[in-house]
Amino acid sequence: MNKKRGQQSVVFSIPPILKATAAIAGPMEGEGLLAGYYDQVMEDDLAGYDNWEKCESYMMEQAVTTAVKKSGHFMMDIDFLLAGDLLNQLIATNFAMRSLGRPYLGLYGACSTMAESLMIGAMLLDGGFGNKVVATVSSHHNTAERQYRYPTELGVQRPLVAQWTVTAAGAVVMENGTDGPKVTAATIGKIIDAGIKDPNTMGPAMAPAAVDTIWQHIQDIGREPAYYDMIYTGDLGKVGKELVIRLFREKGIDISRNYEDCGCMIYREDQDIHSGASGCASSAAVLCAYLYPQLAAGKLKKILFVGTGSLHSQTSYQQKESIPCIAHAIAVEV
Q1: Helices 141-148 and 52-71, interaxial angle, to 10°?
Q2: What topology does CATH give the domain 182-333?
Q3: 3-state DSSP call for residue 189?
Q4: pTM over 0.90
């Protein structure tokens, strides 16, 4: 069977299932809109470590081990770990993997990494190259601020369009099976550059990439947006979300009735996060803490999960380059 569909999509012959998930959150996230849904909420943003980077590694390790335990398996049962974070050389992920002892592929798609990991994991399982894989990502507000913008100690004023990087980690155990939400299709994104150069304006920068991938998914798979109960983008925030709705209206499609952005689902309005949430863990925390239980309970039947990523760096910003962006989509159905 030809699994390739259209220009950028694949349909899985034997759709793998999402067996279990886990989400570890920081204290600010634990007071947000998803309070009560996380497996663990840390008391502070260091978790007893002497730097934020070590805390981020701890979150990922905890998310993976918790998800594997919830799946009923042991770590040695996992064939591959697919993981990534926002930091240079994936240092949070690499150090988390030291104690897990399983074959590991490090992935970088910025905030699209969760969708990328799930997509590649589904391909490995459907292709017969493994029976169980874990997709996991992490982000930490203070590690990301220090790397991409300004150390938090400086107290730099953020513009209203800026977003707040989520301190959390999410992990998903995927396996061959029939009992659980199935990953039925995926659309691989391509680089879309809207010409935006301000790294504080990531939502509007990523929105055109999200629209491009969702539109291509519609063309390749032959599904209208209304096919899905909900379409979720990763971390566009309030500004980027409204731009997605507007860009689709220009195509003659109204997706506002069944569309939401994960970056608008984590924090309360009074938490002073400006435009919304961002980071690898923005979409991962929503998927692992909230969406998966909704799918497992049958409250959601069909979702399109679209990870969005801003692929700039400190170097590219200093060289006054614009921000290349990408979005990957996976269809999850009960």
Answers
A1: 130
A2: Peroxisomal Thiolase; Chain A, domain 1 (3.40.47)
A3: coil
A4: yes
